[in-house]
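Recall that a protein's primary structure is simply its ordered list of amino acids. Everything else, from secondary elements to tertiary packing, is in principle encoded there. The following example makes that idea concrete.
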Amino acid sequence: MNGWFIIDEMAQVLKAETRERIAAAALEVFATRGYPAASMAEIARRAGCATGNLYRYHASKRELFRALVGPDLAERFADLARRMIRSLDGVDDLGALAADAPYFLLSEEALAFCVANRRAVVILLARAQGTEHEGFGERHVERMVRLSLEHVASLGRAPRDEALLGFTLRQIHRGVLETLVTILARFEAEEAIRGAIRSFTAYHLAGLRNLFQQATRAARPRQRRGGKEQRR
């Protein structure tokens, strides 16, 4: 019995190691080639196993993709971005925030998330064509535009030209997304990823603050007339 137990335990360890190799290989292939061009044969080759053996662990490419880039990952990414922007409601100057302000704590949480899920985030944002996450990146951009406009309102300001500001914000947030993807795809070392993201974020936030100062004005106060609230 002891001999069989040892053999079974070793088999389980080998299965776990194979799963880890498959996951790492699949993330690499999906991140570099994108979902449509990725093949189970290439994933198996990079994982060091036979294609037939790969299908014993995952019945299809789609099942394998979903196991690695599932809805929880997308929801977590979107939630962190939303909470970060919301934590700045009413804040005009980041320099006035304490080191333990919610924004900085959430920024660290988001950064750690991106480092830990580097390839999966690249896939989610830019390589998910043909999956349920197709278009996630553009939807994220639109969420960021909406949240940015709501942030402007939280400062008691209003766009001078909302359509123009929306257009500008859309281009800016697309650029941010593309830069994040580039950083995560290019760098593997955590220190390099953190340094690149922090440097870019400092530049990005300074630019946004300048944009809001130039493209918005103080919101007009409301007055009540005849029991109804109206703009002056």
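Residues 2-65 form a domain with the Arc Repressor Mutant, subunit A fold (CATH 1.10.10.60). Residues 68 and 165 are 37 Å apart (CA to CA).
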